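TL;DR need structure tokens for one chain.
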Amino acid sequence: MMLDGLARIGSNVRLGLAALGVSARTFVSLVAATGSLWRRPRLVSDQVHFIGNYSLVIIAVSGLFVGFVLGLQGYYTLNKYGSEQALGLLVALSLIRELGPVVTALLFAGRAGTSLTAEIGLMKATEQLSAMEMMAVDPMRRVLAPRFLAGVIAMPVLAAIFSAVGVLGGYIVGVRLIGVDEGAFWSQMQAGVDVWADVANGVIKSAVFGVAVTYIALYEGYCAAPTPEGVARATTRTVVIGSLMVLWLDFLLTALMFS
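>> reply
TL;DR here they are.
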């Protein structure tokens, strides 16, 4: 029994390492394939529209309600210490540093990531990718690389929109509804938010999340079993693995940037 258990553990470790190696090799090939996209920018722009524009509504609405909650909870917390004038700074830093990139990436994994996985998985199940290879068309360059680059481009833009709309939501609740001084709201925010230490780090975070989530979505679709059940499992793995990867990377990047 003990030997059987050790054999199973060894087999699982070996399979995990093999999958990690395949994933790393695919990532390197995908990054290398993006170098030729400058000759066909329309492929990338179409995917930016598909990934970014179709995710805009859920990103903007979510950002507005997150801003509402931050404005309300932030005021109740700061009011205990007589610092409600710093509400604008609290809302802006919370969104730019953390909530903007992280929540956008989680929504991106649920909306655009699942769409990419299902699309690539169905192309594989219906043998469209195999047909491309038969016609000497590299699916990595023609199908995966434009979507990968588009996801990396769209993520920081969506995170910026999320943060901007969230700040607007905090302004509506804090200034218009509760009555915080409007000048103090904006002046505290302007004085406390640093372009390089806060905004630039938030953009870097969102770009890293874009690389991780988009690659996971494409890899799961590309390696999915060519059956309806295989595509469904790959779509589920995209959300689970993508969300966990975003949270782990957020901790790592926060420790490196703001320590």
